[in-house]
Amino acid sequence: MNADLGSLRTPLCDLLGCEYPVVLAGMGGVARSELAAAVANAGGFPTLGMVREAPSLIISEIEAYRRLSDHPFAVNLIPAATEPDLLQQQIETCLAMEVAVFSFFWDVVPEAVSRVKTAGGLLLHQVGTLRAAREAEAAGADVLIAQGQDAGGHVHGRTPTFELLPAVLETTALPVVASGGICTGLALAEALAMGAQGVQCGTAFLATQESFAHDCHKRRIVDAGPQDTVLTDGFVLNWPKGSAVRVLRNSVTDGFGTDLMGHDPDAIPREVIAHDDDIPRLRQSTDSPLRTTTGALEQMPHYAGTGLGEIVEIVPAARRLLDLCTEAAALRDIAGRAQASGEGAA
Question: For the chain, what percent of residues have pLDDT higher than 90?
Fold first, then answer.
């Protein structure tokens, strides 16, 4: 498929220093240095997922990334779901490591935004509602990531991606990135046509060779379809009450029956079902199975967005990125020629 990939370039690419308007989602545990570098070296914009991680791991992952790539990158943190002292240590560690771009998610914490902005950092803030979009912009965010309920992992709002996107675009002049269920070039082309300056992809990159997810998680994504995902707050230990996630059905969600929402973390037994080295993982925690995880992996949350039906094999991240961009560029070229032909006829 011949396509001019340069036609995909948007001002966001200039702002972030990437070739294509595709952002790797900062998936906690999954988006580590190997995956981030693969996306960056192929022309996308990478995010290291460092949610609630120790400063020592942040340092080692940044160092590992810089050995693999010299392209710009972001570090993803979740201020509203991180203990304040640890959050301060994380931000200060990133600044000491000369991290220039941050990605925040969940409720807006103005103090955290201010610390990044005061240090001269660029901030992407993912939001799931118009209210959060306005709060993030008012706090000083430079880019808004509009996350729809189609997304895998933690989902902040309840509006489908391509309904939330135009609403956010109408309420801000900031660059907007679409996120949630985006696994194809068609979805990228549609987002750009609506006015987004890029897309953010998680599930599409989770099912790649460089992802730090466990192979069982990758295989389940390849074998499943959108009907196999559910939105639930049942995997909530170590996150605020009511935090919903989109996951693939498993024995735990089957046990919920129709009660997918309304789980109180204080009422959930602390049952160890797996380990990452010597770190215990609890049943109904938000921890997904990683390369290092052993134990009852089937009972852990396998995050996936509704676009997973388009993912039929586990491939290198560069191939997934370039396939997506090539398809989008070709579709935009077809649309452009059709429009030109129509104008000519008129």
Answer: 94
